[in-house]
Amino acid sequence: MANIYGFDLGTCNLKFYNRHADKIVMEKNTIAVINRNQLYACGDRAYDMFEKAPDSIEVSFPVSGGMIADYDHLQALIQELLEIHARGRIRGSEFLVAVPTGITEVQKRAFHDLFAKSRLKPRAVFLCDKPVAAAAGMGLDVTGPSGSLVVDIGADTTEISVLSLGGLVLGTMLHTGGNRLDEAIAAYIRKHYNLMIGKKSASQLKESIGSASGIPARKSRVIGRDIVSGLPAQMDLDASAVCEAIKEPLSALCDEVRSILENTPPEIAKDIIRSGIYLTGGGSRLQSMDKLLSQTVSIPVNTFDEPETSVVKGLSLIAADNKFKHLAYSLNTRIFR
To answer: Which of 38, 120, 142, 237 to pair with 326, CA 20 to 30 A apart?
Structure first.
């Protein structure tokens, strides 16, 4: 029987499931090339070079805003990571790919062709809507009539989806995610402290002392370049500065969840009030994010222990369990064999 690989091509992390090995692999969705098209490093190793590489090495992220930004580089990255982590035969396998909701048929075709037209020579390529896969990965009854609200906070986007009977009832994609918070932190520190920091440093501040609700009594040392003198500088930054920096984008995210709830059919709204909102995605790890969302809409919020992998765990269920296989589809039929 042909092996099945399930792929979640996130902006920050690339995750895939290998059914034969029953294993999930997660690496940074980053590639480093030299001479324009010669692969130098990929995944976590390439990410370590980000903001440090010389001009001769180009470090890039082939997925942006949830969409394919660099088709050739992403294809090369996928093939390299499979060769590193997969064991056994790769060619002739089936591939199951999670795709964002609300995208066009042309954009879906790009995700499909990324595998179908690669040197992997797949037996078949199937697609699955990301919110459906995330719900399955969190253990929700996605095939039943009970409605649920899933908020998936990724690196570049947040998908807010109302689901029922294995499909999307209502949803939207908001261009706010972990990267937007990092940018807001870097901009705030530059404006108020005359200190220029990199994206990695901003992300580390968010993870160490950032909070969506309340201000933790903590400080963190940050190192950057003083804008006035032009020299390297360091300072101890209070958590209140980070919390203030991310306040606006978080408020916009919560307002969008409220808007979706206002348009949710009453019978599904009743299910959501009973079961609560399900929060997932790497961005949901921000301290007190669940508390802020719950306070905004007055509905309990459920979190997931490993939010970065909820989508790929859902793909693993779809690949292995016959009762979930109808959730995946090809571009020509709605049947996952």
So the answer is: 120
